[in-house]
Amino acid sequence: xxxxxxxxxxxxxxxxxxxxxxxxxxxxxxxxxxxxxxxxxxxxxxxxxxxxxxxxxxxxxxxxxxxxxxxxxxxxxxxxxxxxxxxxxxxxxxxxxxxxxxxxxxxxxxxxxxxxxxxxxxxxxxxxxxxxxxxxxxxxxxxxxxxxxxxxxxxxxxxxxxxxxxxxxxxxxxxxxxxxxxxxxxxxxxxxxxxxxxxxxxxxxxxxxxxxxxxxxxxxxxxxxxxxxxxxxxxxxxxxxxxxxxxxxxxxxxxxxxxxxxxxxxxxxxxxxxxxxxxxxxxxxxxxxxxxxxxxxxxxxxxxxxxxxxxxxxxxxxxxxxxxxxxxxxxxxxxxxxxxxxxxxxxxxxxxxxxxxxxxxxxxxxxxxxxxxxxxxxxxxxxxxxxxxxxxxxxxxxxxxxxxxxxxxxxxxxxxxxxxxxxxxxxxxxxxxxxxxxxxxxxxxxxxxxxxxxxxxxxxxxxxxxxxxxxxxxxxxxxxxxxxxxxxxxxxxxxxxxxxxxxxxxxxxxxxxxxxxxxxxxxxxxxxxxxxxxxxxxxxxxxxxxxxxxxxxxxxx
Amino acid sequence: xxxxxxxxxxxxxxxxxxxxxxxxxxxxxxxxxxxxxxxxxxxxxxxxxxxxxxxxxxxxxxxxxxxxxxxxxxxxxxxxxxxxxxxxxxxxxxxxxxxxxxxxxxxxxxxxxxxxxxxxxxxxxxxxxxxxxxxxxxxxxxxxxxxxxxxxxxxxxxxxxxxxxxxxxxxxxxxxxxxxxxxxxxxxxxxxxxxxxxxxxxxxxxxxxxxxxxxxxxxxxxxxxxxxxxxxxxxxxxxxxxxxxxxxxxxxxxxxxxxxxxxxxxxxxxxxxxxxxxxxxxxxxxxxxxxxxxxxxxxxxxxxxxxxxxxxxxxxxxxxxxxxxxxxxxxxxxxxxxxxxxxxxxxxxxxxxxxxxxxxxxxxxxxxxxxxxxxxxxxxxxxxxxxxxxxxxxxxxxxxxxxxxxxxxxxxxxxxxxxxxxxxxxxxxxxxxxxxxxxxxxxxxxxxxxxxxxxxxxxxxxxxxxxxxxxxxxxxxxxxxxxxxxxxxxxxxxxxxxxxxxxxxxxxxxxxxxxxxxxxxxxxxxxxxxxxxxxxxxxxxxxxxxxxxxxxxxxxx
Lengths: 557, 557
What we know:
The structure is a homodimer.
Chain A: E1 22-27, E2 30-35, E3 53-54, H1 56-71, E4 78-83, E5 88-90, E6 92-93, H2 95-100, H3 103-126, E7 130-135, E8 138-140, H4 142-149, E9 153-156, E10 163-164, H5 167-171, H6 179-186, H7 191-197, H8 206-211, E11 217-219, H9 224-238, E12 256-258, E13 261-263, E14 267-272, E15 277-283, H10 293-299, H11 304-322, E16 328-334, H12 337-349, H13 354-371, E17 376-381, H14 389-397, E18 400-403, H15 436-440, H16 446-452, H17 461-466, H18 479-492, H19 495-505, H20 513-528, H21 532-535, H22 540-543
Parallel strand pairs in A: 2-4, 3-6, 4-7, 5-8, 7-9, 8-10, 9-11, 15-16, 16-17, 17-18
Antiparallel strand pairs in A: 1-2, 12-13, 13-14, 14-15
């Protein structure tokens, strides 16, 4: 993984028939997702996935399963995660994989796994699909972090099964997928108990695990499965997911990778390696939306907002993982704002439909993924664009936006406008819990309410600037130079400094469990991932399993 | 600074007659603090403090001035910060100092400067002493961050004076003293404007600076001083600080450094280098408190809570800066709980008195300093201790606590007890805005209210454990082994991993401007301070001023 350039790009697209590490089984409203990692099935050579440890490939399948449970299985109201191995639930992220991985790979891997665990929680809280966990063997590190992302943990009380976060004592790194944050902020484990727990390799089991709030209940191993089903049944009873409707098949996502172009039906991407940027163009819908939710279901994966979410999602993951030197994403759009608005109105008015809800949530997750990407983001708003509603969120997610005031010589198209829709006012919160508009106008919250009165209005550059919705509005004389210089300057700055700056400026206002995971926890982890005590020749991550002892620099920083 | 061991320890004690970089002047209720840094006055050799740039020595004086303004000048209701240089306000932290400094020195320096800026804001919000800033020349980086910590920024509109945060474009690091957070969270500058501002070396001046919220007003240079005085007068009119009372002289703090012992009148510290720990014992008061606020004033710096705050504060700063390999602080106390409680009752009942308020706030700042220290903290509660009220906060600040259940053979003293006082229920919030008790019982907020009913009660080990106030309560048979093993284990872990873990577990619940600065911003900065793009041989911090160009690894992490 230190020589990623010579390897084929990582593909995030998969489907259950190709899973090597997970089994999905269905029993009416309860699905069981069984982790059974193939030791030889690592995404890259050089390590064995023993003891249900995982790498990015394992997590890609988990992510795919999560998506399919949401869309293809409206009938599933509870998902039991368990292990197919005999005495181990999951040993967490594979240590040899981590110790061989380049810094950037580790960080990107943790980000993706975090996003998937956040999506598990979102399924529980937003989608009526509650995840729970039957811990049927040692549950360590990332294994316990997976359990923590579910909303009910039942553990076998068999004298050996325990939960643990042994990263600090064993590897000199942090639990990297939200474990520390979920301990004190989700499960609200008392901080001194959390401190002790995180320093004990063997973890905590039995009654103490319940008393300390580390798991929800322990039962004899013989009753584990039965108890999990009982709890699942309780969650099913409380779910608002529909019975007796069919789901939407997430048909294979069509994508063409040709040289420096990536093309989907609803999104295109052109990579400019010389300038270090990717120009990402979201294509508006070609035709009006169906009249109702039944029409949405009939279109399925072909329904424009769902197709857009899938394409954007895949593209972001592709660029993050396979194009790390492309530091600037320039968002553009092309199409008709009135059609985008029509789709948004459907998404708004049919929000109660299970499928429309899923599509809205998928767009929300995808936009969140953009926010937390360690790339600079510009939006460029020109004639022919359709930055309306859902697509306007791309401009609001940008670190800055440029909107041409007027037209360019020789371009007969009307000047660019942007348009607000109801979808800009709440359905797509950022990880800080606020809409992008609310995050933008922290200083003047009243502006958000004022803007509600302008939904549907075409705002030209002057009006958009006046409304505070765009950053700069050069006219045709300045346009080319101003955008070019901004792009060139960005490319000249240190990628690391930009990452830290953007992570600090994007998320003003409140913090949430999610934002704490991406900011506080990930930032500390990234720092530790750079420190010789973890990754140096004598660092704990490097010597693990060799029988050698780590040699720590004892200075506290 | 890469060979700190050979240098004399940094001493944080100073007084105005010894200042080299600041001038304090008084005009009734308005003080003016003028920055006029001596180029040759660096704390360490190897750099010149040009253009009012600063190093730790400059900031130690600022900190001292802040403390004296609070205690020695009850009459001062507004503090104007300005520059004594001709065309420069402040160029920020000295870059050559930073480029020569070891990683730990940089991080510790930023932490101290952050704490001082937070204390400036606390003076404004809690102490009726509002800080404002008259920007009379270039105000860059840490200079602007100092201005951001004040509550009113008036800037000269002279065509050249500007505010800027040039760290990212110039040095490939972040503004390290809260600048990014204060931009979007305190001043609520729109995030896209903040993005632009942080990438423009020359900064923003004049009307745009006001329109974007970067400063509060611009005036012709000729009217700068007059305007600052006018605003100061407005703050004075709103202040509740008393007129016509005398202050308390912060007389020289007596401290003995003898071998591995540090001794103050109210605190002792014994360093055990073999075990990598410092045993810090807070000594309870020797006699009852005075009857009223007049008695407190008469005692002045000799009043036990103030003496305690000063000693603890100095000790923490000393240990952080001069004892970086001592990774574990073990807090103990010795004395009479009834006397501690008597002092606490005075602090509680006379909270309206200006001096009592200052003392409470100083204790609060000092306890916060402990919370954000990158050291493991244990509390050990034994017979003879007095963990009551204010001193109990030390145990509540600890990552974990050990309380002996019963007595040790041959020790005739009664078993240890702990005692709650009103001071445990609000006056000492952590940086997350919650009391340590509220942070502890996030899962059961009702427990905090229940505990109010037990104020003044002596809780033995059993009762303390039952109440959730201590972590472990071994009896005499297990005591020695259990504490010893815990200490030894802690010393064996990676110091970096512990720092990240503790920073993640200590601050459950809400986030504030302060907690965001210490967690999100500092964690990212620390990461960047490790990255070759900043500190490598061709990193921006290293090549700055050499005429060489930085050579960045363009991979985004």
